[in-house]
Amino acid sequence: MTSPDTETSSLYAKREPVFPKRVSGQFRSLKWWILAVTLGIYYIAPWIRWDRGPSLPDQAILVDIANRRFFFFMIEIWPHEFYFVAGLLIMAGLGLFLFTSAAGRVWCGYACPQTVWTDLFILVERWVEGDRNARIRLLRQRWDFEKTRKYLTKWTLWLLIGLATGGAWVFYFTDAPTLLVDLVTGNAHPVAYITMATLTATTFAFGGFAREQICIYACPWPRIQAAMMDEETITVAYREWRGEPRGKLKKGEPVSEAQGDCIDCMACVNVCPMGIDIRDGQQLACITCALCIDACDEVMDKIGKPRGLIGYLALTDERAERAGQPARSAWRHIFRVRTLFYTALWSGVGVALVVALFLRSPIDINVTPLRNPIFVTLSDGSIRNTYDVRLRNKQGEARDYQISVTSAADLALSLEGVPGSVVTVPANETMTQRVYIIANRGTPAAEAERTDVRLWVEDLSAAQRVHHDTIFNGRGN
Fold first, then answer.
1. Which pLDDT value is given to residue 1?
2. Mean pLDDT (10-residue bins), the chain, 477 residues
3. pLDDT at res. 6
4. CA–CA distance, 110 with 38 (Å, rounded to integer)
């Protein structure tokens, strides 16, 4: 027999299943809308078409790993432009800091994928097994035909949701209609099947069984968010000064004047997807989904008490209300130095990305001088330098590029294997062209140690030019 001391000191506690009760209200409706919009975007986005011409994929959102490009409608990101992705990740991080500082864990409560898919799985569970009390009874019921049938039905629907989740993810990395046919006919790459199987299993396990355990133990954000919040942060809280002392309310009897507004009905606990009691104060497990607010407001309406026993408020407001003073406006909590600072940083990164996106050149050029040897003396005494010019054509059609050189010195340019100074680069490809620059004997460039030169590349179809500055090496006498 285990002693009480041993049980108290144990570092592991077996998970008690949480069965949230159905609730209606403004926050529950908001969560349904966010669930529908986010899942709709996730499942539908890979199937949106976007015409980019005959040589480019017509999928609006595509991470083309094979060709090392990312497409987002009219935007095309190449590998050397990864700073755009880095900028978006920075904006996402700053956005989390901003929203957490202003309104607590609203991301966790409304838009986090774990929350969204868990809500969907609970909806399926409620549809198959019934509301909270029915699910609890079914859990405690011995295994019979009814329990087996309901559990198998629920698990099957969960697996189908997981399969759709994994399937939608792989569609972002290749042409969705083509991949769907390959998946059904068994001709898809093994990586696609492995990815789908992995995501199906994790979605099934995380949304169906782990649920709140992912938020409490696996996710690092509950720990990080403590540093993002302060006394001015708006979060879900229980107005203890109004609710205590709590007591049960018997049917047909009025509420005692000595009793607080909380009638200890446990409605806030029964609807919580994390299984916590908000009346115990701020807790790491609370994701501020606000379902307890909907449940409590519904009870307050029934017993004729004002709403707001549980609500969104800051700790400074709780102290003010306890002292009989009015709470500050929510906007004054949101627009303060800390959140304005995060907003400025977030906006600055966003503006910088937009400016960089529209200012980037449609032609990419990179010039690499050959250093072994740094120059060659030809039979007529002239000096020749060799360069590898890498041209990247970002257009959906082949383009003719003219390469030229300008300098204070008299220099000539020629292309290896190409007559004249025009080279054709295929659509959406990178090509390296060897270029020779020659200084005649006795010219300043031939006799000087180093001469600044500028290589120009002009798109003859669009009349666009870019340049690259480099060095011409001479004898240095």
1. 42
2. 48 79 94 95 94 82 86 85 88 90 90 94 95 92 93 96 92 92 92 94 94 89 82 90 84 71 92 93 89 95 91 88 83 88 93 88 85 89 92 83 82 88 86 91 87 89 84 84
3. 45
4. 10
**Which residue's structure tokens are 């198959």?**
128
β-strands 411-415, 464-473 pairing:
unpaired
CA 203 to chain centre: 17
- Using CA atoms, how far apart are residues 382 and 440, in angstroms rounded to an integer? 4
Dist CA 231 CA 333 (whole Å):
9
Question: Residue 156's Cα: distance from chain center in Å?
Answer: 29
Distance CA 249, CA 62 (A): 58
Confidence (pTM): 0.81
Contact 368, 390 (CB under 8 A): yes
**Start-to-end C-alpha separation, the chain:** 96
Q: Which tokens in the block code for residue 12?
A: 């592991």
What is the 3-state secondary structure of the chain? CCCHHHHHHCCCCCCCCCCCCCCCCHHHHHHHHHHHHHHHHHHHHHHCECCCCCCCCCECEEEECCCCEEEECCEEECHHHCHHHHHHHHHHHHHHHHHHHHHCCHHHHHHCHHHHHHHHHHHHHHHHHCCHHHHHHHHHCCCCHHHHHHHHHHHHHHHHHHHHHHHHHHHCCCCHHHHHHHHHHCCCCHHHHHHHHHHHHHHHHHHHHHCHHHHHHHCCHHHHHHHHCCCCCCEEEECHHHHCCCCCCCCCCCCCCCCCCCCCCCHHHHCCCCCCCHHHCCCCCCCCCCHHHHHHHHHHHHHCCCCCCEEEECHHHHHHHHCCCCCCCHHHHHCCHHHHHHHHHHHHHHHHHHHHHHHCCCEEEEEEECCCCCCEECCCCCEEEEEEEEEEECCCCCEEEEEEEEECCCEEEEECCECCCEEEECCCCEEEEEEEEEECCCCHHHHCCEEEEEEEEEECCCCEEEEEEEEEECCCC
pLDDT of amino acid 153: 96
How far is residue 462 from each of residues 51, 271, 387, 422, measured CA to CA in Å?
A: 21, 62, 25, 14
Which pLDDT score is estimated for 328?
A: 82
- Residues in Cβ contact with 334 at an 8 Å cutoff, skipping those fewer than 6 apart: 102, 103, 234
Q: What pLDDT does residue 165 have?
A: 92
The residues near 294 (Cβ < 8 Å, ≥ 6 apart) are 23, 24, 25, 26, 27, 28, 271
